[in-house]
Amino acid sequence: MPGQSQKDVHTVRMIQKLFYRAKRSRKRWDKEWFKFYEYGMRTRHWPAQRPTFRASPVSNYIWSVIQTIVPIATDGKPSPGVLPENPDDIVFAEFLRKALIWYWQDANCDQEITTGMYDACVYGTGILRVGFNPELRHGLGDIVLEAVDPNYCYPDPDATSIENCRYFIYAVPTPISEVRRKFGERAKSVSGDSFMDLDQFDARYSNQEVVVVSPIDKRTQYSSNESMRTSDSEERVLWVECWLNDQTTEEIEIEDEDTGETKTETRKKYPIGRVLTIAGNTLLQDEHNPFADGMIPFAAFSDYTMPREFWGQGEVEQLRQMQEDLNRMDAIIYEGSALMSNGIWLVESGSVKDTDSLTNQQGLIVEYSGKPPVRERGQSVPEALFKYRDQKVRDINIVSGVNDVSRGVRPEGIEAGVALQELKESDRTRIRLKVRNLEKAMKRVGKMLVSRMMQYYTEPRMIQISGEGSTGAEYFYFHFEQGNTGPVGVVTPVGQQGQGQPQSQEYPLKGWFDVRFDVASALPFTKQEQVINLEKFMKVLANDPGAQSPLLDLYAEALEVPGAQEALDKIRSNFKPPAEQGPQMEPPKLSVSVNLEMLPAAWQEALLIQSGVSPPNQQG
Fold it and tell me: What secondary structure letter does DSSP report for 598?
């Protein structure tokens, strides 16, 4: 390794050992991922070596299941909520909430969430990354939320979630030109010869000769054979990025402020973590975690959570065997139908001169002598095959939890409204579990988004919100400044024409912010029910305009009205109880003759004064 110190060489080998350990541990999960992708997202279910004359039908029910689940789980628009730890930050928390809405719309984050959900259904786990790209927005930089390929992710083998990972490795094949553009002279010695077979890597590692290998195996085919390289013919190298919660300590000499004496104190060398990057055998980066929150910038969620495991289970793993059975049944039915429908010819010896002339041609003329040739058709395909096939389709629906109700179709034989409602409720269970898993990951994503804004949004940025509820579009500038007491949020509303220069308002922040995302599933019947539940909630709210009853919160929760809690909070904060005063009766104006004796005394006096007549007690 020319040009590197012994310390750098030792660091590279440390990362390679961590990578090797994570790679070996993940093999029990990823050995079928390539086939899972083919079954879930494509139609390559049959072996490539299958004879061409054999039928290879594919009715991809797994694809149908995934395409039913993903739109339902992701169609609902995520609703962010920002909760401050300190009550004094509640005003600026509302600006942060609006900034999250702006970023979510501007960066098209919904597409990344959808991609992550597809990964979860196919591989069992979807992984999101929240980074920062200083080259975006013409050099101003911006946050980047992306769904990364689980094939490139290698968590700590002992971890059960991102939160308790001691390290997390992201290894992705990258063009050498991109590596050199980012790291300059440090990447000058990087070459594209770093891809080797895993078996070779195992052998060399056992001999303590550590090298970097491709983590992709069969999915992305890189090898020493030039014919196996990608079509763009550009050399690539394995970019290995290791996010490490390093517990290394160091002794620092500090001066006592009171006595002026120098003393030694032991501190963590990397208090917020460490990030290391290698390509081949070259150390490209060894720095403190660049993000102020100290979090590993990834968030993971599972389709089905496996107890005490990092990786989850997807739809394909459970349905693949049943899909293969269906494919075989379809092939048997197809080939049997083709064979049985093409009957054989029974020909008396010598009655037809050329038996090769007996074909399936329409309008065929056959010359014969003696007994005419007879066509004998085969038997029909056994009915049991169709029954077995139908049973397999029902098995897929049972195992996946996707049925007619999920697709918005009324099941056969169900007419009663109560029975249909019970089916709807039970059908929501699977989807709710997936949405809860997604919401947990998005809570972590939300925290990282707010942290990136507080760290990198140091220049004013204009935020445009299309409008919430009945309000029009909102515009304002905001950024963060580092004050003596910590970060200060600065908000400048956009002034209207003729109003002069708008004034900035500073908000010294005293605590951290908690972020949540409410993701409402979009089952075909859910939207209609939400409208009905909202009407019920509004009728109850009409009897309590100030929303003073605490039972309203429980009622809204039971009806699952989206955004109900935020609406109640706004109503309560803006509600002003009427002033307590006695009932006052406003006298009518004197327009017709009235028997004054039948009116209250106060009204009699007011009416007389209104008509220009002095009351009796004022006549002199």
Answer: G
The residue ranges of DSSP E strands in 313-372, in sequence order, are 344-346
Query: Exposure of 182 by Cβ count < 10 A (0-12 exposed, 13-18 middle, 19+ buried)?
Result: middle
Query: What six digits make up the tokens of 390?
Result: 């139908």
Helix (H) or strand (E) holding 78: none
336 to 91, 332, 361: CA distances (angstroms): 72, 6, 21
Beta strands (DSSP E) in 217-261 are 236-244, 249-255
Question: What are the φ/ψ torsions at residue 236 (nearest 5 degrees)?
Answer: -125, 160
Residue 288 backbone phi and psi in degrees, to 5: -65, 155
Q: Consecutive sets of 10 residues in the chain, 620 residues long: mean pLDDT of each? A: 79 94 93 92 86 87 90 81 81 85 89 94 95 90 94 95 94 90 85 49 38 38 39 77 90 77 84 92 92 94 93 93 92 85 82 81 82 81 88 88 63 54 61 86 92 89 67 75 69 61 73 73 54 75 77 72 72 69 49 54 65 59
Residue from 235, 289, 292, 213 nearest 24 by CA: 213
C-alpha dist (Å) from residue 434 to 301, 398, 524, 568: 9, 17, 17, 28
Please give the Cα distance from 513 to 453 (Å, whole number): 12
Three-state SS at 147: strand
Q: Which two tokens stand for residue 554?
A: 């429980």
Distance CA 464, CA 98 (A): 9
d(CA 33, CA 45): 14
Q: CB 300: neighbour CB atoms within 10 A?
A: 27
Which residues are CB-neighbours of 212 under 8 A, at least 6 positions away?
16, 19, 194, 238, 240, 278, 279, 280, 281
Are 128 and 148 in contact by the 8 Å Cβ rule? The answer is yes
The type of residue at 161 is: S
Measuring CA to CA, how many Å separate 117 from each of 111, 270, 306, 386, 467?
Answer: 10, 34, 17, 34, 28
Contact 347, 358 (CB under 8 A): yes
Q: How far apart are CA 310 and CA 160, in angstroms?
A: 4
For residue 251, give both structure tokens. 């002794």
DSSP string, 452-492: HHHHH--S-EEEEE--STT---EEEEEEEEEETTEEEEEEE
Structure-token pair, residue 495: 């002034």
Q: Are 543 and 552 in contact (CB under 8 A)?
A: no
Report strand pairing: 79-84 vs 513-518: antiparallel
Total residues found in the chain within this entry: 620
Q: Which two tokens stand for residue 514?
A: 């908690």
- Which residues, in sequence order, are bridge partners of residue 175? 236
Q: If we measure between CA atoms, which residue out of 54, 618, 11 comes closest to residue 328?
A: 54
